[in-house]
TrEMBL record:
Residues 4-87 form the FAD-binding domain. The lineage of its organism: Bacteria, Bacillati, Actinomycetota, Actinomycetes, Kitasatosporales. The keyword Hydrolase does not apply. Keywords: FAD, Flavoprotein. SUPFAM superfamilies: FAD/NAD(P)-binding domain. The keyword Flavoprotein applies. This is FAD-binding domain-containing protein. Pfam families: FAD_binding_3 (PF01494).
Length: 139
């Protein structure tokens, strides 16, 4: 019988990424998690959803006020450039975090590579600036 707080096994939960391309079909438009899912490690799900909503709102306003559907026509491609940029960041950051910890995940070699990458993030002004831009959503 397990006592309180006892853990019987340890495992990494697979994190999934999903991107629906295109993010629209006819007059149906997908936004946020309906269109794409990023691993929570990168903390970008809400940011991407808000970006989608901003792009979509501007497109709808232009359609209603000016009868110009050009922004609605390019909604998916506009959002997907942003989505794929952050999917790439999320995949890299998730792997980096998992690899840098317990060597039993991907082995000691991957652990040391991940540790070297973390060191670079703090030692290199350029790497730190890019990492900060991704974390804050400025990239």
């Amino acid at each position: 019988m397990k006592t309180r707080g006892e853990i019987s096994s340890k495992q990494l939960v697979p994190l999934r990424s999903v991107v629906h391309d295109p993010m629209s079909h006819g007059r149906l438009y997908l936004l946020g998690d309906a269109a794409h899912i990023v691993p929570p490690m990168s903390a970008k799900g809400m940011n991407l959803a808000l970006h989608d909503a901003d792009v979509f709102a501007k497109a709808v306003i232009r359609q209603v006020e000016e009868q110009d559907a050009s922004l609605l026509d390019t909604y998916s491609s506009t959002c997907l450039r942003h989505v794929w940029n952050y999917q790439a960041f999320a995949a890299w950051f998730t792997d980096l975090m998992h690899d840098s910890g317990d060597a039993s995940y991907q082995g000691e070699f991957r652990r040391q590579i991940a540790r070297a990458e973390f060191d670079r993030l703090y030692a290199s002004e350029s790497a730190n600036r890019l990492f900060s831009e991704f974390l804050t959503g400025l990239n």
